[in-house]
Amino acid sequence: MKVLGIYGSPRKGGNTDILLDEALKGASSAGAEVSSIRNCELSISGCLECGGCDDTGVCVVEDDMQSVYQQLLDADVIFLASPIFFYGITSQAKALIDRCQALWCRRSLEKTAEERKTLQGGRGYLLAVGATKGSNLFEGVQLVAKYFFDALDMSYEGGVFVRSVEGKGDMAKHPDSLKQAFDLGVSAVAGSKQNA
C-alpha cells in the first residue's frame, strides 16, 4: 500500500504541513509505505496547453514535474494539502494539478468513455486550512481536488477542513483537527485495503 502526501504550501512547517504530517503518521501507523512531494522545493511550470500530450498522454515540458508523474501513478492513496489563498489552492499546488492534463489525456487514450465512469486508480483526499470563517471557504478547492483525482483515475473521498487558522504553527492549537487528520490517514489505508 503506497500513500503519497503532497505538501502544497509555499511555507515549510506551516499549518497545512502540520495537518498533512498527522495524516501521513496515521497512514504509516496502519502499515502503509509513505512518501511525499513538497511543491515549494520543485520547479514546475504551469500547463502550456501546447497539445503535446494529446496523442501520447505524456507531457513534453521538461522540468521537475517529470519526476512527479510516476509517484502519482504508483500511489494507492494521495493526500493533497493546501492552505486557502483567495478561496483557492496555492499556485504551487495548482501548477502540479494543471500539469496532470497529461494524465487525463493518458486516461482518455487508455479507457473508453464508459470505462472512465469507474475510478480504479485509488483514493484521494484533501486537507485544507483557511484563515477565515466563510461558509463557502472550501467549496472551490474541493471541486479542484475532485477533478485532479479524477484525472488520476482516483475517487475523491473528502478530507479535513479547518477554518480560522492563520498564524504559522497555530494548527497545533487544534488537537481535534489533528486527531481527525491522523484518523483519516488510518482509515484511508484500511479502506484501500478493503477495496483491493
From TrEMBL:
Pfam families: FMN_red
Keywords on record: Flavoprotein, FMN
InterPro entries in the cross-refs: Flavoprotein-like_sf, FMN_Rdtase-like_dom, ISF_SsuE-like
NADPH-dependent FMN reductase-like domain ranges (all copies): 1-132
A molecular function GO annotation: oxidoreductase activity
Keyword Transmembrane helix: no
PANTHER family in alphabetical order: IRON-SULFUR FLAVOPROTEIN, NAD(P)H-DEPENDENT FMN-CONTAINING OXIDOREDUCTASE YWQN-RELATED
The protein's name: Flavodoxin family protein
Annotated organism of origin: Desulfomonile tiedjei
